[in-house]
Every structure is written in structure tokens, then in C-alpha cells.
Here is the input.
Amino acid sequence: MRNIRMTIAYVGTRFAGWQVQPGRDTIQGILENRIGSILGGSIRIVGAGRTDSGVHARGQVANFKTGSRIPPEGLRRALNAHLPEEIRVLRVEEAEPAFNARSDARGKEYRYRLFRGEVLSPFQAPYAVHVRGGLDAEPMRAAAGWLLGRHDFTSFAAAQCRVVGKERTISLSEVSVDPAEEFVVYRVRADGFLQHMVRTIAGTLVEVGRGRRDPDGLAAILEARDRRAAGPCAPARGLVLEKVFYGEGS
Amino acid sequence: MRNIRMTIAYVGTRFAGWQVQPGRDTIQGILENRIGSILGGSIRIVGAGRTDSGVHARGQVANFKTGSRIPPEGLRRALNAHLPEEIRVLRVEEAEPAFNARSDARGKEYRYRLFRGEVLSPFQAPYAVHVRGGLDAEPMRAAAGWLLGRHDFTSFAAAQCRVVGKERTISLSEVSVDPAEEFVVYRVRADGFLQHMVRTIAGTLVEVGRGRRDPDGLAAILEARDRRAAGPCAPARGLVLEKVFYGEGS
Here is the structure.
């Protein structure tokens, strides 16, 4: 069996997230269906990150096993010819037999886009959240800095998140502003993320940017280990899975 | 009566173009409906350019008369709160009583985006046309140059175009390539455009870029004054109305 690795981009707006769900259009479900049609038989793929309904990706990674000898380039072309245009396979390559897109991932990077201007361009609307009434990037930057390093992120995980062990290490947590000063972008990289973690961080940073929370309050939120200590979970449309990191050479 | 001028952006994908058509969602129709709801009564707006079904705009201009004394800022906010997110009113201002967005327009600028890379990002797909098998920008640039100046554009107008007088003056006709060398963008400015004119120019430039037409053949196409002399009408999704020009101070 060959082990095939894919890098995938998608606009998540009209999909019920990554993970297969009966009766719903999901990225994983559509990919498995199309790969199955092209290669024959039933295919099960493993994705690096289970993005939620409405979340986008520029660099999702997934893998699957197949006995087919189709060349990677040929598979990429055939797949893109049969996928909806919101889902594109950017790269297909043969991986080591043991490669697993999920368990081998050493880290991921996400971006969350906020718009603080007067009128959000319809060309940007599907990928950003419009925050009215001002958003001050400086305190958001200070708040984001508190998250760097290894912490228990229970306060930023969905209340129903069942994962055992909620410590994660954030290696990048950065707020930037575009040249027109209208978009405020939060970029975060960690060895792993809990359910709703980036969106809950974003929702909390928005409260800081609006002056409703003190940036230094982030330390106490982490300390609380209680979902109610953090801000709301920000909407899915602002979030993009940018990149998945693996070990050397992959 | 006050004369209100609006600048409008829209993603045209799911609309049947600018102009009102019974039983179909058009930009003009939706705007008239929402403005009517906000101001009361029936409103008729005049748009600078009747963009086709699926064509986008970053700077469409329109005007309408009203007895309402609502401040321009208030109208803009109320409109954006009630419009679908694919349509945004960027600016509302009071115009001279005689201002007419259509007949006063001195010129317009359009952009047509082509993609010549391997995989078109799903984030760009709604606003660009993927041309496979290579596209050489140099001959396209040469071809675009032939269109500069005053010409009879009959060859580039829809066969059913009934306008009397098909001479137009093109003051900018430029092919550029993005830094990643994947997008080829055609920018054109003229005192007016015939039906399908930019898309037929784009379709002809694509044939030049693929080596199927000689760039110097553009002179003969203009000379022919025959729609069959030019290339096909390129798809609507690649086209954006960028800007409408008026006289000094407007």
C-alpha cells in the first residue's frame, strides 16, 4: 500500500467542517468520495486538524492509504477537476509508510481576521469578522503576549471539550494591523489546539481591543482553568488554518 | 427633492447583473427595494454601468431622487445593515440636482483577472478565470496596445448590441502580471464600453496569450467591424468594474 499525503485549501463557508458527518457536506466527506471515485473503492483519509463548520484552510494536510499506482500529479489533477471550486488540492506526494497527518503534526498555525473599518468590502466579508465601535490593537498585542509559552488552556476550550491534558505550548501569538489600518489579524502557532481555542482567544482579544477587559487579565483567565473566565467564541468565518508543521524534511 | 449619489461594491456571483429584471435578484432591484423600505415609497435608481450577470464591482456609482431628509451617513449605515453582505454601499453623498450617474460618466475602468498557475486558490476562484496550458503575457501586452485610442469597437461588442455609434476611446489598455507570476490582469479605461466589450477583449487576449492569434492581428479585428473577427466572450466572473470617472470635482 502507498501512503499519499495531500495539502489542501478550502473556503469553509458552506461546509459542515472537516470531519465526516452523515447527511452533511464536509471537506473530509467530499474528498473521500471523490478519491474513492477516482481510485475505486472506499477511502478513509486522516486530516491534521478537524476544522469546525465555516472555518477555512490554506494549508490543511491529510493522508490516506491506497493500492493504486496513479502518479501523484495525475491524482491532483483528477481531484481538482472533480472537487467543488471551494476545495483545492494544492499538492499530492508519496509519504513514508508510517506518516500520519494527525499524530505526526508537531504544530499548527492559524490566523483570525478582524475588520475595524467603516464598511467591510464584500470581497473580504466571507473571511473576516466586522467589529464595530473601534478596536485598539495595542492592548490586544499585550494580551496576546500573555499566552506565549506552556499553559493549561482549559479556559479557552469549548466547555464540552473532552480531551485529557489541556496543556499546550504557544510559540507565536501576534497581533498585526494591515497598512490601511482596517484589518487586525491575530496569528497563533502552537504544538496543538483544543476545540474552539483560537476562536475563544480571538473573542477574548476583541473584548480587550474594545476596552472591556484589561490586557493583563489574560494571566488570571489562564489561571482560572474555567471556560467562563474567557470571552465568547468568535465566529468561524474569521478563522483560517494556515499551516501544519511536521518534523524535519516533512 | 434631494439627489443622492452612492458608490457601491458587490460580488456579482449570485446576482442576475445590475439591471432590474422581474423575478430575478439584481443589484439595482435589491438596492431599490432596500432604499424604498428605509425611506418609504418607491425609488428608482440610475447606475453608471449595467454590469452583466456574475460581474463584480468595486466602484459602481448610482444616484436617485428623494424627498427624505435622512443624513447621507445614516442612510449608508441603514442600507448596509439591510443589504446582503455581497453588496456594500461604500459612500453616500448629496449631489448637484442635475447629476446623473449614467449620462454624466466621462469614463470607466474595468479589470479582468486571469490565472495561469497550476492550482487556483479557492479564495481567488470567484474573481478569476483559470486558463490552462500557459498564457504568455508579452504578446498580450502588445495586442492590448493596439486598442489604445479612438476606434470602432463593433468587432468586440455583443452581436445583439443595438447602440448607435460604436466608436469609443480607450485611454488605458494594460496587461500586468502579479509578483508570483500566476495572475495576468488586464486593466482598461475608456470613455464608454459596448455590451460584452471588456469580456470579448479579454477572450481575444487569451487567444493571443496562448499563441493562437498574432498580437498584431488586433488591428485587422478592429478594421473588420464584425463580431466574428474577435475571440470568445470571456466568463463574467473575471470582470470587475473598478471605477467610474466624472468631471472635475465629482
